[in-house]
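Methods — Computational structure assignment.
A single polypeptide chain was analysed. Its primary sequence is given first, followed by the predicted tertiary structure written as structure tokens.
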Amino acid sequence: MMSHFDLSRARVRHFIPGRVRVKVSQRPWDARVAQSLQTFLTGMEGVHKVTVRSFSGSIIFHLSRHPTNADAFWKSLQGYCRGHMAELQECFDPKDTISYPDPSPFLSDASLDPSSERLSLLTFAGLGGVLAVALFKRILWGSGLAQGPFSAAGIVSLMAVVLLWRKNSRRPRRHHRRLIPVLNGAALLAVVSSRALTAVEILFVGHVSLWMEARSEQRAARYLAESFPHLPKTIDVLEADTLRARSLSEITAGDVVVVGPGRVIPVDGFVQDGLAAVDESHLTGRAFPKVCRHSCPVFAGSRVLEGTLFIVTEKSAQETALARMQSLVLEGLRTRTELERRAEVYSRRTLSMGLWATAVTLAVTVDLQRALSVFLVFACPCAMVLAASSVITTAVAALVRRAVIVKSGRSLEMVPVVDAVCFDKTGTLTAGVLCVHGVQPRAPWMKEGEVLALAAAAEKQSPHPVAIALRHAAEKAGQEIWSAEEQEVCPGRGVQARVGGQTVLVGSESFMRERGVSVGYFAKKAREHRRRGRLVVYVAKNNRLQGLVVLSSSVRDGLSEFLQTLRSEGVQRLELLSGDSSAAVRRFAEGLPFDASLGDLDPEGKVSRVEDLQKRGYRVAMIGDGINDAPALSRADLGVALGSQGAAAALETADVVLLDGDVRKFLLLRHMGEKMLRLARANFFWAMSSNVIGAVAAVTGIVGPGAAGLLHVMHTGFILVNSARMHQAAREPVTPDV
């Protein structure tokens, strides 16, 4: 078995009915290998679609027949590969592999090496100097430069031709394959025809356009790289009670990493010891920090604001949620979108049209000067390609800064045309925070407010969601929250504290029984609340039960307005798909503008509903939590997952992940997609119209080569400035009413 597809090292990393992800290689494949491997594996029985992620070395299988488990699929894959070994080996060519990129993957493709930068500056200086001398000589003495092949202008032109060819051979691009030879050919023709100054103008315009393209691409890549947290290069690791500095690549699962205040957490893991306030805004999008203590999960890229944490790592740096986000976004950006394909088509047509227009002008006017002026107008159509790719990259980066992970530009192209949206209920349309549903005192003479105040006081210092809900409810009821002392927290079960000299207990049924408190009085009511999906918390004072507090997830704020806005923006159908009981789903949907609300659905039932809508001609977006909704997210035209806690599963399945769990950001996603399409269309229109106007002016002799070159540079500059308007979206604040 070849090292590039070593089944002994491959693993099934994610398995759901109808979809399997297999991690094959730690090294990326090039586009040719990925395409060959995709074609080969599609021939496997029971597979209707294969997606090869060339950057991450993973393969996604979409199955028409569902294996019973991961082992059954794995045996089928092994048998298929071993039975077609010769075909599998033909998919790989060691000469075509690429090395693993540096830790800043978004910059690796766009960075300019110093030698190339120096050559570009020297070329600019030489060509610009010749044009400046020619201009001053014309103004001051009324004469022009010598333009023969062996003149200064001719020699500089020939040197620029060599440098341009060398630059293209070092870093070939798809849309440069025809462009560079045409530019150099036109320049050589001008030099041979003793019009070396025109050759200088052609090459100067070409070099300026290519330089602007590289700079804009580099800027977009850097902008995207800066949207992700930067991990430290050296990490403090605890070894035998001694701190040792190790590089990030040396960290493995099980190491104990020490992270102090102001430092960035380098890997995913859980807190072994310590207490700290941690900024997780890159995962949650929320501005307020999270208090982390023993057993709390932490994620790479989070920053410790106060305190020190001893973290047991669970994954290597290459397997963290942050690394998966980066690799998936980069993989998506390397996949050409419809906009980019259209831009390449326009680019080829523009260059062909320019060559025909140049030839016709030369044949009709027999004026090489006019013909070269026409050529200068159409030269370097690569700006049109960049107009699409830079808009897409900037849009993806802007959304990353809003805690929205978009895997590809294709998702942004799809979201404005979606006309049916299906929602999961729990965790998607219900708020991510708890609220107090009701308070039931133990005795008639007890007041609800007093029971609530006792519970809030005992939980006063806790960051737990239950504690936050209790304090918020007590403050809303106008209750004074007393000070608590000797607070003892039992993680996941309850809390004990001294309030006003009395012992107060707040927690679960098992917690109360351990402390000798009888809760049988509320047994029937508690069962009913739990059946409805609510959380029950008991309150006791001095080992005597005081009451019961019922908590539940509330409907998200502004949900009705959000759904109405989707309807007004062209979404024709809104459906609620949930695994809850049909009665509960119908109650939830009352007053909300859903066209259908279906309950008692298992994951396969949601998939069937999505497929039914697609058969009826709808382009469907499925929005869910990314775990039990994974099959439906995979089947929909656009899958949108919510929440950072399920980010690993969400990133495997969905096209888009809303890390902060705010479903209303689907509107932001839709608006960004629409803006991206508008800017790209404007770029295409400007490019075509300015070319036509410039060509007419050049054919009629209104503009010469110099003016035509200036027109082309202005045309390229306008497209890049217009594309950069996507950067402004990243600076606009995201409000709760997104």
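Note: Residues 404-422+559-659 form a domain with the Rossmann fold fold (CATH 3.40.50.1000).
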